Amino acid sequence: MEHIFIPGKNPALPPLVLLHGTGGDERSLLQIAELIAPDAAVLAFRGDVPEQGANRFFARYADGSFDLESLAEKTEQLMVQTAKLATEYDFRLENAIAVGYSNGANIAANAILTREDGFRKAILFHAMPSGAAMPDFSLADATVFLTAGVNDPLISAEGSQQLIDLLVDRDAVVTDVWTQQGHQLTLPEVEAARDWYGTLL
Predict the structure, then answer these.
(1) Mean pLDDT over all residues of the chain?
(2) Which residues contact 171 (CB under 8 A, 6 or more apart)?
(3) What is the DSSP letter of 94?
(4) Domain 15-199 has what CATH class?
(5) By 3-state DSSP, what share of the chain in percent is helix, strand and coil, each rounded to 5?
(6) How big is the chain by its Cα radius of gyration, in Å?
(7) Domain ranges (residues) in the chain
(8) What is the value of pTM for the model shown?
(9) What's the rounded Cα separation, in Å, for the pair 65 and 183?
(10) In sequence order, what are the beta bridge partners of 101?
């Protein structure tokens, strides 16, 4: 996957790993990162699965359901590449915070839920679980901030709640923020993510 890395002004801050939504690219969430943690390092990926010309991180079927084989393959690829780049750019993967929106949030959530070497800190904007059977290793070391829209036409409130339940049931610490909006990312969500990031310092 194509990526960009922006060194942080303060190397002690947890770095952000940016994962865009469908149709985005490695620059789509840079302004969001600037609002959340302006002095932190940023590693931003571009999904390499095309869907009618739009970048995605994994494939899906025409009805919107996840291609689970693609999701598993691309989740592994993401974690392998992130670990490699963490060494190259000299930051600790266990300190990194995945920041994902929609499709990017979904692959970040899958990395948390299915891989013991997956992300353990994440900001998930409008995410849902894959629907696949999950392993049962503990997520007691995971801390997740999640936002959802009760009127989101693409990711239902039920889907978001299922993701929260999956995380909490395995002992992850979850902070959730619900809005009355749809699928769009709102400033109050980003500001709440910024405040949550501050609690980790």
Answers:
(1) 96
(2) 138, 139, 140
(3) G
(4) alpha beta
(5) 35, 20, 45
(6) 15
(7) 15-199
(8) 0.97
(9) 17
(10) 125
According to the model, what pLDDT value does residue 163 have?
Answer: 98
- Degrees (nearest 5) of the Cα angle 9, 14, 16? 85
| Residue 22 near residue 100 (C-beta atoms within 8 A) | no
Identify the CA nearest to 143 among candidates 160, 122, 162: 122
Residue the block writes with tokens 């392993």:
135
Give catalytic residues, as residue numbers.
102, 152, 183
Strand partners, 174: 144
Q: How far is it, in rounded angstroms, from Cα 55 to Cα 37?
A: 25
DSSP assignment letter at 27: T
Cβ-based burial of 120 (10 A; exposed 0-12, middle 13-18, buried ≥19): buried
Tokens 């696949």, located at residue: 132
Q: Which two tokens stand for residue 37?
A: 């943690």
Tokens 């610490």 sit at which residue?
Answer: 173
pLDDT tens profile 78-101: 999 999 999 999 999 999 999 999
Quote the pLDDT of residue 64: 87
Residues in the chain: 201
C-beta atoms surrounding 186 within 10 Å: 16
pLDDT for 107-120, tens place per residue? 999 999 999 999 99
Contact present, 185 and 153 (Cβ < 8 Å): no
